[in-house]
Amino acid sequence: MSDKVQQRKSTGSGRGRRSVTIKDLARELDLSITTISRALNGYDDVGEKTRQRVEEKAAALGYLPNRNAQRLVTQRTHNIAWVQSDNDQKFVDPHFVEVMAGVLRGARRGQYDVVLSGHPPDEQIDIYNRYVKDNSVDGFIIDLPQPNDPRISFLLESGKPFIVHGRGERWNEYSWVDIDNFGIFKSLTHLMIANGHKKIAFINGDEQYSFALNRRKGVIAALDELQLPHDTVTFQSTVHPMGEAGFQLTQQAIRDADVTAILYSSVLMAVAGHSALVRAGRRIGEDIAIATMDDQLHYLDLSPYEERFTFVRSSLRDAGYVLVSQLISQIETGTSSQGVVIPHHFFIHDMLDAAGTLDG
Asked: What is the CATH number of domain 181-314?
């Protein structure tokens, strides 16, 4: 079977040169067409040195694989589906944009395309079912899992490869990429209490989603470990996407004059909340302590807050890259489900003593 490709070069007359084929590579490398094909398609019966020679020569000659021919050989489409809720706010959410940037970079590196579509929540299972039945994609990305998420249940039954950004029930049955939401906010609660804060506000994300529920559980676990009443912390949450409610929720939190520390689920809410604190005459870093999750949103300049906040940093863009890379590995090698925890790092404000309180 010939595997013709388009070569991105042109002759002086403006017409494209003849496509580079597997036969050309075989002649250049003095290898069989079968060996070339299997090396390019990732079969493990080809030695690493041979695979590297083939890939280097293919790159040098401008070889690009013919997707239709590849599909016949591998039975793969090189398409990944990412079905979103039909929500205008979601598509301008900086958190989503960061994940998407990482996903697209990983897909490009793996030579996959991402099929992004938006549908009302009550229609999404029908879309998954269509993709599975017509075999038009090789796998799926799910983000923002919820408790008893029907998307996860459907894809587990379908047998189709998929990966979840986050964890919910049955997390040991599927592949996922996540941060330690529970552990991070348990540690932050320990940190504030160890530094003498007796009343804390926690401004959380949308608690219909697993990430926010796990953060809340982490705060409660810290209180239980310290044998403190749950009303030591006042709990507030917003609807997704996070950010717009930060100012208003901070105003509500500091109506209680005893609140001397605030934990934020997103740096967007912390930045908005900072304005409310300044307006109320609170001295950040002096009479009130601020700690926030920082997903390293590339468009946001945090330099004005570096000396005022405690940050827990973990890159959503890195998470998106790992997400699609793990899915491609699952598609191409048939690996079993596994989870990946993205690292996080604490950056503690000088007014806080972190000794013995942090787990990351």
From this structure: 3.40.50.2300
